[in-house]
Amino acid sequence: MNFSLVSDQEGLSRFLFHNKDFKESSGKIQWNRLMPMRGKKFNRLETSIFRTSTLKQDKEIWELGDDFAGLQRKPPKAIAVLQAEQIRNKQKLDVIPETSTHPLHAVIVNWPEAKDRQIEICKELKKEAKLRVR
What we know:
Blueprint (H helix, E strand, L loop, with lengths): L10 E6 L5 E2 L4 E2 L7 E2 L6 E7 L6 H15 L5 E6 H5 L5 E4 L7 E5 L5 H14 L1 E4 L1
Antiparallel strand pairs: 1-5, 1-6, 2-3, 4-5, 5-8, 6-9, 7-8
């Protein structure tokens, strides 16, 4: 994998740490789990995500989440899975590597400033995300 580019076909995972972040019965995540935050490093709106296409087994993805969980102080309960292309099809969003915390870390960028538009995009992405529960 070329770590300088995120291909459209790459699988991306957003770790979910609380039961309220998803509904197992419907197989859906809560849209607000995809909302961007203003990143300190570049002062831009971004959503943290991990590039998990290279991980061969579920076990490796959960281990990545557990390692990342050190920052969250609890292991992830579920994962929202999207492909980069699904993200790029929304507005002008992009997925770029941001490897300062982990070599597989990336961020969703180019979010609109308007909060109502961010919510609309998150609700669209929620419909496409696949839920995987631990």
